[in-house]
Amino acid sequence: MEAKIIDGKLLAEDEKEQAAWQSEWLKARNVYPCLAVVLVGDNPASEVYVRGKIRDCTMCGIGSMNIRLPAETTQEELLAKVKELAANKAVHGILVQLPLPAHIDTKAIIDAIPPEKDVDGFSPVNIGRMQIGEPCFVPCTPAACIRMIEATGTEIAGKHAVVLGRSNIVGKPVAMLLVQKDATVTICHSKTRNLKEICASADILVVAVGRAGFVTGDMIKPGAVVIDVGINRGADGKLRGDVDFAAASQKASWITPVPGGVGLMTRATLLRNTLEAARRTVKE
Ligand code: NDP
Fold first, then answer.
1. Tell me: the pLDDT tens digits for 121-175?
2. Where along this sequence does the record place binding of NADP(+) (predicted)?
3. 2 and 220 in contact (C-beta within 8 Å)?
4. How far from 18 is each of 12, 23, 30, 82, 120, CA to CA, in Å?
5. 231 labelled as ligand-binding?
6. Which of 118, 182, 237, 247 has the greatest count of CB atoms below 10 A from its CB?
7. Quick check: helix, strand or coil at residue 46?
8. Model's pTM, two decimal places?
9. What pLDDT is attached to residue 283?
């Protein structure tokens, strides 16, 4: 049977509707939610992402600051900008678009974002809090993956979840969130042996490898829920996921498309985190 599609567009629209309501709620309490997005240089993909984030904010009544800095910006200049935003009470969330130019120490910049404004959830404090299950800003893509699994009505507890990829921004946090939801989790990476067999035993398979069509139909357990995080641009300019969608659709029960899947929900989750940052400043 053909898999059902986990529709990122539909879920993101729903999320945005809720964000618009929340934004009104905050404004009625004199809190005007605002996200500052900092883009250094002119990476075309980053420009597209930033434009999308700003547009989402506008649609949901969230204010935004679109800060563009030239590629030659020094580490000190960028740090000074982040500190200025950190001190600005009108700014609730700070997002520094990655990747940064090679001469800038990304870690030092992320570390300079105060945890309460780190809506991307990349700072060590937020990552640590997530590990121990304390309230925090969960990184947007991992949070989106969980929401998409839950949207299928699938019970995560007790399931075997396999996460393909162990990056700090996707693989590791997704795995941690799945453990917190009581899944039994296996993390696979480039040194994993018997990768195909492990994937084929997954009730829930989250793929974040960065290789188009890496997961083939024989790596999918019949009835599995498949979340494809990968975004790969082919020579034809088209976006493809890490999963061979056509083949996987014949085996999975649910699957996310690319485009139209995790990417859209990731953006919507950023709105949620920004609004949560603003909500924390409401004087009860
Ligand atoms: P990274 O390159 O940081 O990590 C890739 C992971 O895949 C690594 O852990 C690597 O293993 C593993 N890997 C690579 N090749 C193989 C292989 N042959 N066999 C097994 N494992 C392998 O990527 P990211 O996590 O940042 O991103 C992954 C994908 O998700 C990309 O396509 C990216 O564009 C996309 N993405 C999408 C987002 C969205 O909003 N939808 C957000 C963020 C990313 P090892 O650690 O051993 O090197």
1. 999 999 999 999 999 999 999 999 999 999 999 999 999 999 999 999 999 999 9
2. 165-167, 231
3. no
4. 10, 9, 19, 29, 19
5. yes
6. 118
7. helix
8. 0.96
9. 82
Distance CA 70, CA 39 (A): 9
- Burial (CB count within 10 angstroms: exposed 0-12, middle 13-18, buried 19+), residue 3: buried
Amino acid at 209: V
Dump pLDDT digits (tens) for 252-274. Answer: 999 999 999 999 999 999 999 99
Contact residues for 226 (Cβ-Cβ < 8 A; gap 6+): 3, 205, 207, 215, 220, 243, 248, 252, 254, 255, 256
Asked whether the beta carbons of 269 and 15 are under 8 A apart, the reply is yes
Q: Is 53 a catalytic residue?
A: yes
Hey, which of 191, 198, 207, 229 would you mutate to test ligand 1's pocket, going by the most ligand atoms within 8 Å of its Cβ? 229
Beta-carbon contacts of residue 101 (< 8 Å; ≥ 6 apart): 40, 41, 71, 73
- Coil, strand or helix at 38: strand
Residue 180 a catalytic site member: no
Q: Which residues of 188-226 are buried (b: 16+ CB within 10 A; e: fewer)?
A: beeeeeebeebbbebbbbbbbbeebbbbebebbbeebbb
Distance (Å, rounded) from C-alpha 26 to C-alpha 29? 5
Is 198 annotated as a binding-site member?
no
Is residue 232 within 8 Å of residue 245, measured between CB atoms?
no
Residue 27 sits at φ, ψ, to 5 deg, of -65, -35
- CA–CA distance, 183 with 160 (Å, rounded to integer): 6
Give the C-alpha separation, 110 to 162, whole Å: 29
User: pLDDT by residue (tens digit) across 39-69?
Assistant: 999 999 999 999 999 999 999 999 999 999 9
The whole-angstrom separation of Cα 264 and Cα 59 is 14
Query: How far is CA 237 from its chain centroid?
Result: 23
Active site residue: 53, 81, 221, 251, which one? 53
